[in-house]
Every structure is written in C-alpha cells, then in structure tokens.
Amino acid sequence: MKLRNAIATLAIPLALALTLAACGKSGSPDAMDDMDHSTMDHSGMDMTSPASGDTGMTTGTIRSVGENGDFLTIAHERIEGVGMDAMTMGFDIMSSVDLSDYESGDRVAFAVKKGRDGSYRITAICETTGTDMSCLN
C-alpha cells in the first residue's frame, strides 16, 4: 500500500507537468489566441528526411504581425534545411530581429532556427520579390 501511495504521489505531478508542457504556447498570447489555428497544419513536416536540420531559409508572404512585434504568421514555401513543406504558420521572432517595417501582405525572405523547445524562430528577415533570398546574405 505504501508503494502504491508513493507511485501515485510521484505520478500525479509528473502527469501534470507533461500536460502543461504539451499545452504550452510560444509567442504573444494575444497573437496566438487571435490566430486561425486551422492554417497551422504541420502534417507537411518531414521528420525522416536526412535534410532535416536546425536551420533553414525560404520565402513567403506575411499574413499578420503580432501586436508586440514579436510574432509573425507567414504563408511560406518549403523550408530547405529543416524538412518543412509549404504551409501557413506562426513564428516567434529572435530579439535581434526588428519587425517595425513589416506588415501583412509583404513578400519576405527569412531564416529560421529550431530552438531547444522544438519551435522555429525567425533569425533574419528581409523584403524580396518572388523566390529570391539573396537579401539574406
């Protein structure tokens, strides 16, 4: 009986911690609440590809800018280097990236890096036309 109580005592906080971690949000809470989550389909993630890494670059069109300038929703092309297919999704922004000149509808090239928490953050961004990413160099 003591063993069962000890296991239950340990299992409940562990289950709670795992549940909270699974429900965690990244980015601005307001931006996440206002987002159309139906566009964040990550089924195109190729997690088995040997090309899947921690960094990549692509182009896309900004769909929305977070109220605090720390979050972007972008309809993007395939991100080579991380094995992510084209989709619309939200990205947190590294603190060194200034979004003050960007707005919904802007065509951009951007670089991402996978964080320890598994989410991708924009590390560099620039306006572009078409699929040209040379402005990132």
Overview of this protein structure:
This protein has one domain (29-136): OB fold (Dihydrolipoamide Acetyltransferase, E2P), CATH 2.40.50.320. Helices cover 20% and strands 29% of the residues. The chain is built from two helices and five strands, in the order ααβββββ. The chain has helices at residues 2-22, 29-34; strands at residues 55-65, 71-76, 87-93, 107-114, 120-127. The longest helix has 21 residues, at 2-22. The protein is globular, with a radius of gyration of 18 Å. Residues 23-38 and 42-50 have low confidence and may be disordered.
Strand content: 25-35%
Fraction of residues in H or I helices: 10-25%
- Helices, by number, come to 2
Low-confidence stretches: 23-38, 42-50
The total of beta strands comes to 5
Order of helices and strands: HHEEEEE
Q: What shape does the CA trace take? A: globular
CATH superfamily: Copper binding periplasmic protein CusF
The CATH class assignment is Mainly Beta
Q: SS-based structural class? A: alpha+beta
Q: Kindly report the CATH topology.
A: OB fold (Dihydrolipoamide Acetyltransferase, E2P)
Overall pLDDT level: 77
The CATH architecture can be named as Beta Barrel
What profile does the largest beta sheet have? 5 strands, mixed, barrel
Number of domains: 1
Strand order of the biggest β-sheet:
1-2-3-5-4
Radius of gyration: 18 Å
